[in-house]
Amino acid sequence: MKRILFLPAAIFFAAWSVSSAQVVLKDAERFQSKREWRAALGYDPARIFSLRFRGNSCPLVEVKIDGQSFWLTFDFGSSGGMLVTTAIEEKIKYEFVRELKTSYADGRPRGSGKEVILNRVEAFGKTFERVVCDLFDWKIFSSAPNDGAISLEYIENTRFTLDYREKILAVTEKPFPEVLMTGGGLISIPLLISPDWNKYGLYLKGTVNGRETIIYIDNGSSHTIVDPGLLGAMPVTKSRGGDICASEIPVSIGGLDLRISRFRVAAVRRKTSYDLPVGIKIGSDLLRHFVLTVDRTPGRNLLIVHR
């Protein structure tokens, strides 16, 4: 039995909103790589997967449960494992294990669900038998029905490239080619060691509005959120989906310098032991402008931005 427990403390559904407001990236076209990367990076065509998008741009990947296809959010932000929801509960067979409780990223209670066993799961070109996962009511996390989410635990110790424009995800066990590391058009940024409770999460050091902070990458969130403590005197307005700052703010990560506006403003509550607080959560509304590679093959922990 493969035990992959999904801990939905920070998962994508919470970020879906009835509001259509999305972050604005200044000079966005400068960051939209049009380079062909599949062959150059050595991906096997059998490990290149089509994506769908729902809501405000969160990527969905096909996952088969006992041969039936469902589209689960491919979620950087989950703490591990896989989640299915009540939206598909009557379409799947499972064994009940126990009752579960879930919480927000800061530990506050959120809701209850079930731990269940799925007989057969196919994802990312691999087959998993007797998978332990979570089943929760979609209403706990979302404003719209959804099938669930799958985490980076399913592609642990791999390299993957996520291309929003081409709507594809590619996975390999091979590290990023060294010969390309120093070539033009790529920015390689070291990732921090993730917190124990969120060991697959993507965290980096950077600056927001000139202040050092921890930057959290969460493609399972449809909105980019900046902590109000980083705004200084910038004005914030109320909207149906939450507080919005229309002012332009600089964000620097490694050699990547961005200017964003119309972002959500809220406390970014994440428990970590870093020497700086987490000040910004970058969601898919900003990530969609980029082609991103994450290399977590043995000895590597890198975010590579294609230019």
Main attributes?
single chain, 307 residues, mainly beta, Cathepsin D, subunit A, domain 1, 6-stranded mixed beta barrel, 24 strands, 3% helix, globular
Instruction: Describe the sheet with the most strands.
Output: 10 strands, mixed
**Integer count of domains:** 2
**CATH architecture tag of the largest domain:** Beta Barrel
Query: What is the quaternary state of this protein?
Result: single chain
β-strand number:
24
How are the strands of the largest sheet arranged? 2-20-19-14-15-22-16-21-18-17
The CATH class of the largest domain turns out to be Mainly Beta
CATH fold-level topology of the largest domain:
Cathepsin D, subunit A, domain 1
Strand content: 35-45%
Strand pairing plus helix content: what structural class? mainly beta
Written as H for each helix and E for each strand, in order along the chain, the element string is: EEEEEEEEEEEEHEEEEEEEEEEHEE
At the fourth level of CATH, the homologous superfamily of the largest domain is Acid Proteases
Short structural summary:
The protein is mainly β. Helix content is 3%, strand content 45%. The chain folds into 2 domains: 2-20 and 36-163, Beta Barrel (Cathepsin D, subunit A, domain 1), CATH 2.40.70.10; 179-306, Cathepsin D, subunit A, domain 1 (Beta Barrel).
Describe the structure.
- The strands form two sheets. Strands 2-20-19-14-15-22-16-21-18-17 form a ten-stranded mixed β-sheet. A six-stranded mixed β-barrel has the order 4-5-10-6-9-8.
- The chain contains two helices and 24 strands.
- With 307 residues, the protein is mainly beta.
- Residues 1-19 have low confidence and may be disordered.
- The N and C termini lie far apart (42 Å).
- It has helices spanning 178-181, 284-287; strands at residues 2-3, 24-25, 48-54, 58-65, 68-75, 82-85, 95-103, 109-123, 126-136, 148-151, 159-163, 168-172, 186-190, 202-208, 211-217, 225-226, 237-239, 242-245, 249-253, 256-261, 263-265, 278-282, 291-295, 302-306.
- The protein folds into two domains: 2-20 and 36-163, Cathepsin D, subunit A, domain 1 (Beta Barrel), CATH 2.40.70; 179-306, Acid Proteases (Cathepsin D, subunit A, domain 1, Beta Barrel).
- Strand 23 and strand 24 form a beta hairpin.
- 39% of the residues are buried.
- 3% of the residues lie in helices and 45% in strands.
- The protein is globular, with a radius of gyration of 19 Å.
